[in-house]
Design brief:
47% strand; globular; 13-stranded mixed sheet; 13 strands; Immunoglobulin-like
């Protein structure tokens, strides 16, 4: 019995911090949920994670709720004609059977936490509830990473947004950024 407990502890240590916050919900595996730390007066933050659907049937992420923010949404990023636009995903985010959907810096999707109730501090953990069409409500813990954090090479790279101007919204709730310079951070997709 003691040997079995030691094996379990060793396995948990070997998994490391990236998988320590993984959550199983039916056929869905939610991995490496994290947010980047924010400045004291910052009112928005972005959350990232991967959702792997090991089942044959698709599921759909319908909504996100969290006590850390007045509002949370899954956002889609689109690029066209020198502009980067982001806004809420309409009708939910499809999670196809047998596929992984990454919500990652520089990727097509992320969770936008708006109207933050306080700063997100490196080392803290924050909770959110993901609501899926089939898997139902899933409580997820996001690790708050430092401002300089870059995900491991297995996750999509981030964009350098130092030279962009941002329009904080239109009538549809979309945000857009004028691209003046956009370069990958060096991490692969």
């Amino acid at each position: 019995m003691l040997l079995r407990k030691l094996y379990i502890v060793a396995a948990l240590i070997a998994c490391g911090p990236a998988t320590a916050l993984a959550q199983q919900a039916g056929a869905l595996q939610i991995e490496h949920p994290w947010v980047r730390a924010t400045a004291p007066s910052q009112t928005t933050g972005a959350g990232y994670l991967s959702i792997h659907n090991s089942g044959a049937d698709a599921d759909k992420l319908l909504s996100v709720n969290s006590d850390i923010a007045g509002m949370a949404e899954v956002h889609k990023v689109t690029k066209a004609d020198g502009m980067v636009k982001m806004g809420p995903v309409q009708g939910g985010l499809a999670i196809p059977g047998g596929k992984t959907v990454d919500l990652s810096p520089g990727g097509n999707y992320h969770i936008m936490f708006m109207q933050l109730k306080g700063p997100l501090k490196a080392g803290d953990k924050v909770s959110a509830t993901l609501d899926f069409a089939k898997a139902g409500k899933v409580d997820v813990t996001f690790k708050v990473e430092p401002l300089t954090y870059q995900p491991a090479s297995g996750h999509a790279g981030s964009m350098n947004m130092d030279h962009m101007s941002m329009d904080h919204g239109d009538a549809n709730g979309s945000m857009s950024m004028k691209m003046m310079k956009m370069a990958p951070s060096g991490h692969g997709n």
